[in-house]
Amino acid sequence: MTAEYKVQGDVAVITLNNPPVNGLGYDTRVGITDALEKANNDPAVKAIVLTGAGKAFSGGADIREFNDITKAMREPILLSVILAVENSRKPVVAAVHSVVMGGGLELALGAHYRIAAPGTKVALPEVKLGLIPGAGGTQRLPRVLGVETALNMIVSGEPVNSDVLAGLPGQKLFDQLSATPESLMDEAIALAQKVAAQHADGSALPLVRNLPCKHPQGDAYFQFARNMVKGMAKNFPAPVKCVDAVEIATKYKFDEGLAREREIFTNLMQTPECKALRHIFAAERAASKIPDVGSDVKPRDVKTVGVIGAGTMGGGIAMNFLNAGIPVTMLETKQEALDRGVATIKKNYEAQVKKGKLKADKYEQRMALLKTTLDYADLKDADLIIEAVFEELGVKEQVFKKLDEVAKPGAILASNTSTLDVDKIAAFTKRPQDVVGMHFFSPANVMKLLEVVRGQATAKDVLATVMGIAKKIKKTAVVSGVCDGFIGNRMIEQYSRQAGFMLDEGATPQQVDKAIEKFGFAMGPFRMGDLAGNDIGWAIRKRRAVERADMKYSATADKLCELGRFGQKTGAGWYDYQPGKRDAIPSELVNKMIEEHRASLGIKPRKISDQEIVERLVYSLVNEAAHILEDGIASKASDIDMVYLTGYGFPIWRGGPMRYADQVGLFNVAESMKRFARNPNDDASFWEPAPLLKKLVAEGKNFN
Ligand code: NAI
């Protein structure tokens, strides 16, 4: 049963029961309408209470119906359910608690009366999926909260506490706030009995739709709101449409407004931006599921964490755990290195306190959770130990052998290596089943992505634990198999190679950066190189020259590094930088160096279009990703999208590289690759479409 029906005295109680959050899927919608009918036909029932079981009143639409439009649109659709609530001859009291969001709030707004438990999270979050509320939310919420409060909630999608809303002067959202969450149902039933008595004479029941909806400054206010929202929404159409819909509520009769809201909603559903956001919503959930690690696998307990190395990454990694209230012991080889690491953490927190993002007492609490040591014995009780020392296998060997000696049985030993073989690292210990890669991205306290590298021997419960802890520290964890560069960096290498070839052929760094930034990347490859340090790629290419001498590269990046132009940290890279500033200024010297190199290769420069730049950069990611899927390094295409969206600044509204390729059409993508393969200055063998891509094209299928 997805909606339970019970009669308590003269009140019928309808309880949504569709775990985890009482999503309003087809069965639940039928359950509600059936129960309403039953209550209305039962002469013993005088009033109805509508509530939710478990940890929500209702979280809104059932996400399982997201990609099944026919089921989502099967009558009774939510609009019809709400109409049935409004039309109930007996008063309906919505008793909301915990979470009342999206369609759940729209449903409650159809009730004649509403009572909320304190601490209930109230929101219309549809905008986060590229939509506006589509079942009356934009028409009813302004009528009960006033235009401005309602619009703020609808445009931001953020939850507001019921206590705050109930305290707003003149609000009509809640008729009552229960004394405690526990007393909600008793108070709801009492309210139902009271209003039933008031309307025993057959007087009309109050409906939100009948309330007035006006803003004193009308046009001026909406113009102002539209301008504000336009600036913030950038490539997303939905936020501005939220403004339109609320304005409609002030200008049209209720039913006309409802129809117009529905039209906007349906049109938004078809936009690529909305489809991309819905894809990401599902992809994020899918990423946390590992095909062969079921819910029967019990994670290990992680109460304390050790971090080895207090450098760039170690400090940021430690902050993640401190932020989540988990004690950290940080180990280094020298006291100075520890002091430097702690000073950086403090500086980071102090900047947050200054900006008002962190309360001073919270800062103190977090710092109190941090211990430092030079002695491995202090890690003997740690449940999880993350190594972030120099990227040299010899150093990793020393560390892991030492950890094997001191760590308690069952402790998880993780490496933050970005390129080294996790299986080799695991083999330094006598417990390879406890070893896993936890590849954070810089700055580790900010970046959302965590690649969880599954070694050959990594135990399932280790994976389950790391995925769980990732959630706790608010990371998006994606599982990768062991290979050079894992998912993200293996792909970015191909992207960087293409960027280099295009310089050889006639482009400038600024042209390449501009084109891909216009496509929506947060930063082009050359500005990115200057930020991260061009010397990192240089070191990798030197190693590659030994391991894979056949791999073709443009030599411009090496020439740049030979000049000591490592990027922002040396005040010069692909671009020039003024002291203390981060603005990239095109460099005459670099552009001349590129021209000279081009001439030495005997290449006649040609004009490269922005479209070619974007296609070569993005499709290089796609082709390598297809190999990654084939090799089983990633288990699904949507995981690759998550890696690029959360770790590499791929434009959100395009849904990730795989989803973008699906949208362009894999046939078109493969045809472009074949064209690129004919370019003598590129790497023809790379552009051979990956077998998986060819197969999907032949079958007319997509990655996602
Ligand atoms: P870093 O050079 O800033 O810090 C390394 C720290 O480890 C230094 O403070 C050093 O004193 C300490 N250390 C060295 N040997 C040690 C030992 N035997 N015992 C204890 N401490 C020792 O390096 P960074 O950038 O923090 O990199 C650390 C690891 O993280 C490397 O494996 C790197 O590949 C990886 N990584 C780095 C990223 C980055 O953007 N910097 C991104 C993702 C991973």
3D structure, described in words:
There is one protein chain. This protein has an eight-stranded mixed sheet with strand order 12-11-10-13-14-15-16-17, sandwiched between helices. Strands 1-2-3-4-6-9 form a six-stranded mixed sheet, sandwiched between helices. Helix 5 (137-145) crosses helix 6. The model has no long low-confidence stretch (mean pLDDT 95). The chain has 704 residues and is of the alpha/beta class. The chain contains 29 helices and 19 strands. 47% of the residues are buried. Strand 2, helix 1 and strand 3 form a beta-alpha-beta unit. The structure holds 1,4-dihydronicotinamide adenine dinucleotide. The site of 1,4-dihydronicotinamide adenine dinucleotide has 25 residues, from helix 13, helix 16 and strand 15. 1,4-dihydronicotinamide adenine dinucleotide is lined by residues 308-314, 331-333, 337, 388-391, 395, 398-399, 416-418, 439-442.
